[in-house]
Amino acid sequence: MARFRAILKSTVQACADYIWPPMCVGCETPIRDAQGLCARCWDSVTFLSGPVCEACGVPFEYDLGPGALCGDCMRARPPFQRARAAFIYDDASRSMILAFKHADRTDLAPVLATWLRRPAAALLADADIIAPVPLHWTRLLSRRFNQAALLSNRLARLSGTKPVPDLLVRQKRTGTQGGKSRRARQRNVQGAFKVPARHRAQLRDKRVLLVDDVMTTGATLDAGARALLRGGASAVDVITLARVVLNHP
User: Fold this and answer.
1) Which of 114, 139, 144, 208 is deepest in the core (most CB within 10 A)?
2) Which three-class secondary structure state does DSSP give residue 193?
3) Residue 201 belongs to what H/E stretch?
């Protein structure tokens, strides 16, 4: 019976691929493997696999040894312990992020979460809870889904880490972060998040992995991490799909 089910599943998948051929996540050209990238897009996306700052995860040109920090983190450590990302946010990756975030491409969540597993491996090994950066309820109502929550839930399923989708709530509607300076972004999200009273007991002394789609200046993730620490978390790590890297070509 198990063999029959496997054959049936394979046949159904083959028929589906024939009728609806798999498309590249980046440029939507037909490809052989479902939910992947074509060779051209794979070569253009800059996956982060080399040495990075131990705290914020910005890539280094050279390996500076274990525990090395970038200049910004040496001057002031962020409230989270470690931040990691799957790839650099640039022209090559922007189309994927925008399609996922604003074009209702929720079908991209499985493959994007799979790409998060490698950079998040060490963070997941230490995490007690995984949670997304939340949207304000009015924005969630208009968008109909939270892309960070989709990634968080998928990553929790892949790793076996306990998901708490509403561990944080956004208690005030903030304006868009786009086009703002670092300081303006910080002011924009100051006091934006809180841990609901119903979650404080299970959060106490727990290490949280906070999930978002893109890290730009880190202001939103800083604010989320501070709220979690105020709520009783012992430490916070961060994983994002992409991160902005200054001076990246």
Assistant:
1) 208
2) strand
3) helix 200-203
CA–CA gap between residue 148 and residue 164 (Å, rounded): 12
Which residues, at least 6 apart from 155, have a Cβ–Cβ distance to it below 8 Å?
Answer: 113, 116, 117, 120, 124, 130, 161, 211, 239
* pLDDT the model gives residue 178: 57
Radius of gyration of the chain (CA): 19
Q: Among candidates 50, 32, 54, 28, which has minimal Cα distance to 41?
A: 28
Mean pLDDT for 105-120 is 89
User: Each residue of 118-152: pLDDT tens digit?
Assistant: 999 999 999 999 999 998 888 877 778 899 999 99
CA terminus-to-terminus distance, the chain: 55
Q: For the segment 155-193, what is each residue's pLDDT rounded down to a tens digit?
A: 999 999 999 999 999 887 765 665 656 666 666 677 779
Q: What domains does the chain contain, in order, with CATH numbers? A: 1-44 (no CATH), 48-243 (3.40.50.2020)
